[in-house]
Amino acid sequence: MLAKNSVNLTDGKLETMTDAALARLATLNLALPPAPAPVANYVPYHLVDDMLFISGQLSRTGSGSLLSGRLGADLTVDQGRAAAAACALNILAQAHAALGRLDRIAQVVRLTGYVNATPDFSDHPLVINGCSDMMVDVLGEAGRHTRVAIGVAGLPGGAAVEIDAILRVRK
Amino acid sequence: MLAKNSVNLTDGKLETMTDAALARLATLNLALPPAPAPVANYVPYHLVDDMLFISGQLSRTGSGSLLSGRLGADLTVDQGRAAAAACALNILAQAHAALGRLDRIAQVVRLTGYVNATPDFSDHPLVINGCSDMMVDVLGEAGRHTRVAIGVAGLPGGAAVEIDAILRVRK
Amino acid sequence: MLAKNSVNLTDGKLETMTDAALARLATLNLALPPAPAPVANYVPYHLVDDMLFISGQLSRTGSGSLLSGRLGADLTVDQGRAAAAACALNILAQAHAALGRLDRIAQVVRLTGYVNATPDFSDHPLVINGCSDMMVDVLGEAGRHTRVAIGVAGLPGGAAVEIDAILRVRK
């Protein structure tokens, strides 16, 4: 995934404009994974006016392997944070697939983070920070979001983390 | 519940127009249940501009009995899927109560599905498909939605499934 | 926190207008707590057009102490309801911080209530009523909302209840 997109301008001349957010991702030595296909009968995103709703993204790496396990049992907080960062990259991949460019994201409005955790685990915010930090690192002010972080009894396929998103986009 | 609504057109002539989505429900040998009354101090839906927010709908059948139990313990995936389908019918019933016609639903934008499940259960997507499939069967393209599926520690009254919805509607 | 705000009108004359909702809070012998600071890397609210998204608010009292514990184990339903009422006050505090006046809330559109509960607990609606009742008591019709109530495996810091909100506001 390159940090430059080729676009046809209205005068027909082909120009290359840098996607600032995609470039920032590259400076972090990160790349967008392929946007994950839905695991069931639904769509990955819907754009309604200027609001982009993104389906819950599991903690799946760019190579497609699922980061699974339960916080408070078989995963450390750092492993949980890495799982949340994988969710973040998948959210960004879906946004890129929907919008063509990451820098069309005007604001990450809402993230809801579900942590696969035991009843005695209480550091859900530290886990979901793996996603929150990534959003701010890549998108800057546009990445600052409202958030919900909770511990759930289980997640699809035994995933460690699932996060859904609502974004405001530039038209 | 009939698949036809009587409406007064602007010229005052009473005509009958088929509600295509309601008709499709009938061809599936299904009927809208009564829209469930809220179980506490809240309202079943709010229409904000063209977005319809629907409260979490429990897996309650048209006759009012609650489909309860826990996936991974006392319910099979098929029973879970049937519970999610019951949630779908209740969401459609609320939309019909709010809009007067099912085919005023322009798009099911978001479904969030909560599955009452043990920590080792991991087939939440198959369960929530009971709702997703119903939406697409009844509404076609307008029924295709973004989705979140998670396993929760418990649900009101011990319900097997709860699902909330955000819909875009035709004005 | 007074029920009156000083505002500069366009003619430069300083006037005092009563915030009806804030006044109602006072008649209930309640006051707005300080708007809680986020516990991690996110923001407490985002205003998008006329929709105010508020981050998940924990059951924290005005003095800052966290109401923690698990329904079905170490908390009664009444204690859970009090925890949900604390969430309500924190939601109102965030709305006041965002809007300057509580009576700019046109409608509480959606509340999602997460109850820290054992798998056998089933009275989540009674717990979340502690928030729902507060919204209606303080805001009247504008406080009536759609709602989701679920039981979760755990919450940040071991909080008893977390509730997030979407509000429509007057511009």
Q: Regarding quaternary structure, how should these chains be classified? A: homotrimer
Remind me, CATH topology of chain A? 60s Ribosomal Protein L30, Chain: A
At the fourth level of CATH, the homologous superfamily of chain A is: RutC-like
Distance between the termini of chain A: 23 Å
As a percent range, the share of strand residues of chain A is 25-35%
Description:
Three copies of one chain form a homotrimer. The two termini of chain A are 23 Å apart. Chain A contains three helices and seven strands; from the N terminus they run ββαββαβαββ. With 171 residues, chain A is of the alpha+beta class. In chain A, helix 2 (77-99) runs parallel beside helix 3 (124-139). The radius of gyration of chain A is 16 Å and the shape is globular. The first copy, chain A, has helices at residues 20-27, 77-99, 124-139, and strands spanning 4-8, 14-18, 45-48, 51-58, 105-116, 146-152, 161-169. The model of chain A is unreliable at 1-15 (pLDDT under 50). A five-stranded mixed beta sheet of chain A has the order 3-4-7-5-6, covered by helices on one side. Chain A has one domain (33-169): 60s Ribosomal Protein L30, Chain: A (2-Layer Sandwich). Chains in contact: A-B, A-C, B-C. The B-C interface holds B 38-46, 48, 53-56, 70, 112, 114, 118-119, 152-158, 162, 164 and C 51, 72, 107, 109-112, 117-126, 128-129, 132-133, 136, 144-153, 166, 168.
